[in-house]
Specification:
Shape: globular
Number of helices: 7
Radius of gyration: 20 Å
Structural class: alpha+beta
Order of helices and strands: HHEEEHHEHHH
Oligomer: single chain
Largest sheet: 4 strands, antiparallel
Number of strands: 4
Length: 157
């Protein structure tokens, strides 16, 4: 997908302008069109905005445009297609629709998304593993790390 396409998307014009406080992985996602206007359909619950992976969204728009032209019927505008993508139901699998902007969800998407850069995918996996360990799993990782460190220290007599 070319960067020229993302410049043409209506969704790009409806993004928060100051993105400097966002994490690196959050910058790879588009906010819902209604987020800056505080529309209720832009969020899930009280505080999590609906987001699309930028690369998946651009691919979705291109796929819909292609499908429209193959049908030979009414070809929707880019804005109409974008609005349809944002309106997809939550019952669809997460890879086929927007997702909730929770850090763990975003990291999992990035590490599983074939459209993402391999370096970003690897970084997302590392960050997810570090940030989302349960206390029990954290103890096991720490214990295993301590045991392996002790095993590699040579004994001096």
């Amino acid at each position: 997908m070319s960067s020229a396409m993302s410049a043409q998307l209506y969704t790009t014009t409806k993004q928060v302008q100051d993105r400097s406080r966002r994490s690196w992985y959050r910058l790879l996602f588009y906010d819902h069109l209604g987020y800056i206007d505080r529309l209720p359909e832009a969020t899930l619950g009280r505080d999590k905005v609906k987001v699309w992976c930028m690369k998946c969204f651009e691919r979705g728009v291109a796929n819909e445009q292609r499908a429209d032209s193959l049908r030979g019927q009414h070809v929707r505008t880019t804005v109409e297609i974008e609005q349809a993508l944002w309106a997809l139901p939550e019952s669809l699998p997460p890879k086929e629709r927007w997702i909730r902007s929770a850090g763990a969800s975003l990291l999992v998407h990035i590490q599983d998304c074939d459209l993402q850069d391999p370096a970003d995918r690897a970084r997302a996996q590392r960050d997810h593993d570090q940030m989302n360990l349960s206390p029990r799993r954290q103890r096991r990782v720490t214990t295993a790390h301590t045991a392996s460190s002790a095993a590699t220290v040579p004994l001096i007599c």
